[in-house]
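Re-running Flagellar assembly protein FliH to confirm reproducibility after the cluster update. Everything else is unchanged from the original entry.
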Amino acid sequence: MSRIIRSSYTKQLEDDKKVEIQLKNLFTQQFSGDECDEPEEEAITKEDIYAERDRILVEAHREIEEQKVEFEKYRNEQLEMIEQLKQLWEEEKLVLEQQAYDTGFQQGYEEGIKKANADMAESLKTANEVIETSKQNAAAYIEEQERVILELSLTAAERIIGATLDRNDELFVSIVKRGLKEAREMKEIKIYVSPQYHNVVSNNRAELVEMFPIDVPLLIFVNEDLSSTESYIETNHGRIVISIDEQLHELRLKLNELLNSKD
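Result of re-run:
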């Protein structure tokens, strides 16, 4: 009887591997140095906010691509292992055939071939199951990390916008201007803002009025029921909400659209 050489190899993906997202701190200069020193004023613009958002997305894509490359490398290793098993089987098969032929025992030959075939089939089945399981685990891991990256991006954007508004009230005016662009065809404009930003918006009224024809009245009201960053525009055709939450909601939709477009 011949001795069947069996070889198997399995490899598991590291489920606990984490994706590190490094968020660029735009405000390190504000808190550096001695606590008694006068903090250095740093002007932060919308471009800085959008640039930070884009940097986060680029880093997220890079991390995802690295995960895909690692999985592809693992898959190729598994395929190579299968080829090695096939080659080993072919060599063993020749040995079995020669031994059976030399001994002249037809029954032993047939039994040897049958057992070798069964062993090889079992080895290939195990290898295929390992590859399929690894593929599913890798796909689920990458999808999970994409959602984590999305939430990190939104958290970073919310933190950046909130901190920037605390330091630069004028940024709120640019948010109002974005909402007014949607009301350019209206015949009457009423802006409702919280008490915190009423003076800021009122002081920039001349700049806002320039966005409309001279015969379109633009009025600014204070609404004490609004939170600090909430505001809306009343027109003759309805209401336009221009709060920070709406801006973040728009960002969330765009990020989800980006993830879904990869499918």
